[in-house]
Amino acid sequence: MATIAPFRGIKFNRSTIGDWQPVIAQPYDKITPEMQGRYYDSSPYNYVRLILGREADRYTEAERTYQSWFADRVLVKDPAPALYPYYQEFEHRGEKRVRKGFVAVVELEEFEKGGILPHERTLSKPKADRLTLMRRTQKNLEHVFMLYSDPEDRIQKLFGPTCGRPPEMSVTDEYQTVHRLWTAPDPAAIGQARELMKQKVLFIADGHHRYETSLTYRNEMRQAHPGFTGREAFNYRMVTLINLADPGLLILPTHRLVFNLAGFDFDSFLAKSAEWFDVKKIAEAEIGPELKKRSAGHSFGVYNARGSSLLTLRDRSLLDRFVPRERSRDYKELDVTVLHSVIIEHLLGINPEKIEDYVRYEREPEEAVAKVKSGEFQLAILINPTRPEQVERVAQNRERMPQKSTDFFPKLVSGLVAFDIANGEVIDA
After folding, report:
1. Sign of dihedral through CA atoms 152, 414, 107, 104?
2. Distance CA 2, CA 114 (A)
3. Which of 18, 41, 50 is nearest to 142 (CA)?
4. Using an 8 Å Cβ cutoff, are 184 and 168 in contact?
5. φ, ψ for residue 208 (rounded to 5)?
6. What share of the chain is helix, strand, coil (3-state, %, to 5)?
7. For residue 403, what are the contacts with CB-CB under 8 A and spacing of at least 6?
8. Which stretches of the chain score pLDDT less than 70?
9. What is the DSSP letter of 358?
10. Tell me: the pLDDT tens digits for 109-163?
11. Tag placement on the chain: N or C end, fewer CB within 10 Å?
12. What is the four-CA torsion angle of 84, 90, 96, 97, rounded to 10 degrees?
C-alpha cells in the first residue's frame, strides 16, 4: 500500500564545509530564538538559514541562500538515486539506545486512501508557513518521520552490508545524539525494500504539518502542469521510515502545566478528583517511579505548592461519559484522552477551545515541577508516555489524538539530506 522510491539526495559537500557539526540544526519547530542565534554563529552554512531564517523576508532569503550554496557547491546532489540508512545513537535517563531507520521518498496520497495515516491533529498556521517555504525553495528540506510494522525486521536488515561500513556522515548534536547516515544505491536491496514496503501501511509519527503541506503543494503543481505523469518529484515526499518493532524507538510523555485558573485550590481539586480517582498522597520524588509502575493503567501525578498526589482512575465508566460515543475504545483508553476529557475539561473546567489560555507543555518532569515551585504555574500534571502500539491502533481507526500526545525522541536532525521537488525533477519509478 505504500510506494517508496530512491532519490538523488542533496547533501553538504564536506570539502567545502569542513565539518558536519556546525551546519546541522534541530527541526524548525524545535528551534528557540537562543538556538537560532547559536546556529547562526556556528557557521555561515548552518542549515537554520534554510529552514528558519531571521531576515525580514525569510522565505526569499532561504531561496537565495539555497541557490547560492548550490552554485558554490556547498550543497551537492548525488549522481544516482539511493536510499539512505539513518542511525541515531542516544542515551535517555541512563539507558543507551540505537534507533535504526532509512530515508526514502514516498508517493503522496490522501489519508482517506488508507496507505498513509496520521495520528495527531494539525494547525493551519504552521502549514501556511511551511507551504510558503516549499513554494520558494522547491525542496523538501526536512523529514517526515513515519512508522511501519515489520516484526521480523526484514526491511531494515537489507541495509546491513551498507551499515557495516563507516558512515558517510557522523555528527553529534547538542543533545549528545549521534546521527549516522549512509548512502545505499544497491538496486537489489532497493528493489526488495520497495516490494516489501508495498505491503505496509505507514503511520506519521512526527511531521504531520509537513506531510499535509506536501499534499497541498502537489495539488498546486498538478493544477499548474495538467500533463503530469505521476513520476514528477512533486508527487513524492522525503521521509524517514522506522520500524514499530525497533528496540530503539522511544516515545516520551509531554506533561501539562496549568495556569490562569481563578480561585484554584489544590485540596478542593483533590477532593473533587476522589469521586472517580483513587487519590494517594506521595512525595515529590515518588511521582516518576509510581507512574512507571502503573504504565498500563490510567494514572497521573499532580504537583502543587501544597504537595503532590497520584490519581488513578477507578471509575472507567467515565470513558463513555466524557468521551464522545463515536470514539473507539482504543481512543478512549489513551491516557491523554483521560487527561484532557476528565481532568482538564471536567475537573478543572477548562474549555477545550481555549486550552492555550490555561495549559502549557513540558517534556521533562523535573522542569514541570520546578515551574510550579517558582510560582509560574499553579499545577503540574505528569503523565505516562503513549505506547507505539497505541499510535498504530488509533491511526488504523482513522482517528487523531489530541495534540502533544506523543514526543518521539530523539528528533530527526535537519541538514543531513534534502530532496529536490522542482518541476522537471522526476523519480525513477
Report:
1. negative
2. 9
3. 50
4. no
5. -55, -40
6. 35, 25, 40
7. 120, 121, 123
8. 121-124, 429
9. T
10. 999 999 999 877 666 677 889 999 999 999 999 999 999 999 999 999 999 999 9
11. C
12. -30
DSSP three-state, residue 212: helix
CA distances from 408 to 29, 61, 379, 385 (A): 14, 30, 25, 10
Q: Which residue has the cell 499545577?
A: 379
Could you state, in order of their start, the residue ranges of all structural domains in the chain? 4-250+410-420, 254-384
Report residue 399: phi and psi, to 5°.
-115, 160
Residue 417 corresponds to which cell in the numbers above?
A: 539530506
- Nearest 5°: the CA angle 365, 369, 370 is 115
Closest by CA position to 193, among listed 232, 151, 159: 159
Residue whose entry in the numeric block shows the C-alpha cell 518521539: 408
3-state secondary structure of 109: coil
Question: Tell me, what's the pLDDT at 318?
Answer: 77
Strands 255-258, 359-362: pairing is antiparallel
Instruction: Please check whether residue 200 is in contact with residue 1, taking contact to mean a CB–CB distance below 8 angstroms.
Output: yes
**Residues 6+ positions from 50 with CB-CB distance below 8 Å:** 62, 65, 66, 137, 139, 141
Give the type of residue at 311: L
In whole angstroms, what separates CA 218 from the centre of its chain? 22
- For the 254-384 domain, the top CATH level (class) is alpha beta
Residue in the structure block whose three cell numbers are 520497495? 194
- Cell numbers at 274, concatenated: 476522589
pLDDT given at position 123: 66
Cell of 257: 502545566
DSSP one-letter string for 267-308: HHHHHHHTTTEEEEEE-GGGHHHHHHHTTTS-EEEEEETTEE
- In whole angstroms, how far apart are CA 219 and each of 225, 242, 341, 354? 10, 27, 36, 33
